[in-house]
C-alpha cells in the first residue's frame, strides 16, 4: 500500500475545475515528479495534499489515516513537509532562525518552550541551533547561517526552504519547482540534495518544469493537464506518451 494516496480528488474554484478526479499513490521511497503545463493544477494538488486547500471532493490518505481537510499545521505534524513555488522565507530572520522555525511541530520539540528560553531548555536551544546549522550545511548554505534570509539570492532562499523542511525529519517532502530560477551550478547542487534526501529514506514529491532534472531524478512521473491526471509511469514511458506530448504542444511554456 502506498503511504500517501489520493482518491478521486477534485478541487473547484467557482466554475473552474482546478483538479478533476485525480487518483494516485506515491510509493514509499519514491522520487515522484508531478509535471504539466502552466495552470494544470500542480500547485493546487500540493496544496490539497498539505492542508493549504480543502478539496471539493475525494480523499487524501496517509497510511490508514484519512487526512482530507486537515489544516496545514496538522499535516505538517504528521511528517509531510513542503516548499513553495514562490519562496516563503522570513526575510528579517537569519537563515539559521528560518531553519529553526521548521523544527516547530516536530515530534518531541517544544517550540514555545524554546522561545521562552526557560532554564533547562537553553541547552536544547543550543542543540537545535547546531542541528539547524547541520541542515544548512546539508543544502550547501553553512556559510550563510547568520545572513538575513531576505538578503540571500533567490537560489539560496529556495535551498533554505529545503533545509527548513528537512529539520522536521519529514517522511514525505514536497518541492514545488525547486529548480525554477536557479543557476545551472545551483541546479546541479540541488539535484544532489534531492537525490541524497531520497536515498536517506524520505519520499520526495517534486513539481518541476525542468525536464532534464525530472528525467535525471524521478522514479515515477505523473502528468496533470487541465486538472486531470493524463499519464503516470516511468520517466521514459511518460516522455513518449502521445497525450503528454499533445498537452505540451498545445500550450507552449512561457
Ligand atoms: N486560490 C485560487 N483561487 C482561484 N483560482 C485558483 C486558485 N489557486 C489556483 N487557481 C487556479 O487553478 C488553476 C491551477 O493553478 P495551479 O497554480 O495549481 O497550476 P500549476 O500547475 O501549479 O501552474 P504553474 O506551472 O503555472 O505553477 C489555475 O487556473 C489557477 O488560476
Ligand atoms: Mg504551480
What does this 3D model show about the protein?
By secondary structure, this protein is α/β, with parallel strands linked by helices. The protein has helices at residues 42-49, 72-77, 95-101, 111-116, 121-138, 154-166, 184-199, 211-217, 235-239, 242-250, and strands at residues 4-13, 16-26, 31-35, 57-62, 65-66, 80-82, 172-176, 203-207, 220-225, 228-233. Helices cover 37% and strands 23% of the residues. It has a 6-stranded mixed β-sheet, sandwiched between helices. A hairpin with a 2-residue loop joins strand 4 and strand 5 (65-66). Helix 3 (95-101) crosses helix 5 (121-138) and helix 3 packs parallel to helix 6 (154-166). The protein is globular, with a radius of gyration of 18 Å. The protein has 2 domains: 1-79 and 170-254, Rossmann fold (3-Layer(aba) Sandwich); 89-168, no CATH class.
Choose one word for the global shape.
Answer: globular
Content of β-strand:
15-25%
Largest sheet: 6 strands, mixed
Do you know the CATH topology of the largest domain?
A: Rossmann fold
Question: What's the number of structural domains?
Answer: 2
CATH architecture of the largest domain: 3-Layer(aba) Sandwich
> Helix proportion of residues, in percent?
25-40%
CATH class of the largest domain: Alpha Beta
Ligands present:
adenosine-5'-triphosphate, magnesium ion
Q: Count the helices. How many?
A: 10
Radius of gyration: 18 Å
CATH superfamily of the largest domain: P-loop containing nucleotide triphosphate hydrolases
Structural class per helix/strand content? alpha/beta
C-alpha end-to-end distance: 38 Å
Oligomer: single chain
Number of strands: 10
Strand arrangement within the widest β-sheet reads 6-7-8-3-9-10
- Give the helices and strands as they follow along the chain: EEEHEEHEHHHHEHEHEEHH
* Mean pLDDT over the full residue set: 91
Amino acid at each position: 500500500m502506498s503511504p500517501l494516496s489520493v482518491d478521486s480528488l477534485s478541487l473547484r474554484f467557482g466554475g473552474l475545475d482546478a483538479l478533476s478526479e485525480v487518483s494516485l499513490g506515491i510509493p514509499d521511497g519514491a522520487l515522484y515528479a508531478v509535471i504539466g503545463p502552466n495552470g494544470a493544477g500542480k500547485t493546487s494538488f500540493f496544496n490539497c495534499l498539505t492542508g493549504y486547500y480543502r478539496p471539493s471532493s475525494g480523499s487524501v490518505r496517509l497510511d490508514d489515516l484519512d487526512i482530507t481537510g486537515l489544516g496545514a499545521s496538522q499535516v505538517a505534524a504528521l511528517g509531510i513537509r513542503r516548499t513553495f513555488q514562490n519562496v516563503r522565507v522570513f526575510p528579517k530572520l537569519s537563515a539559521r532562525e528560518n531553519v529553526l522555525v521548521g523544527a516547530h511541530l516536530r515530534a518531541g520539540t517544544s517550540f514555545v518552550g524554546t522561545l521562552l528560553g526557560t532554564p533547562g531548555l537553553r541547552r536544547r536551544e543550543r542543540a537545535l541551533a547546531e542541528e539547524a546549522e547541520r541542515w544548512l550545511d546539508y543544502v550547501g548554505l553553512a556559510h550563510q547561517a547568520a545572513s538575513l534570509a531576505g538578503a540571500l539570492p533567490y537560489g539560496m532562499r529556495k535551498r533554505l526552504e529545503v533545509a527548513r523542511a528537512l529539520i522536521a525529519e519529514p517522511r514525505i517532502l514536497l518541492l514545488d519547482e525547486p529548480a525554477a530560477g536557479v543557476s545551472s551550478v545551483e541546479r546541479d547542487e540541488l539535484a544532489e540534495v534531492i537525490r541524497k534526501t531520497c536515498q536517506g529514506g524520505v519520499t520526495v514529491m517534486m513539481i518541476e518544469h525542468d525536464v532534464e532534472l525530472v528525467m535525471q531524478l524521478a522514479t515515477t512521473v505523473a502528468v496533470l493537464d487541465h486538472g486531470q491526471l493524463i499519464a503516470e509511469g516511468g520517466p521514459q514511458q511518460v516522455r513518449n506518451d502521445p497525450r503528454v506530448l499533445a498537452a505540451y504542444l498545445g500550450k507552449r511554456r512561457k
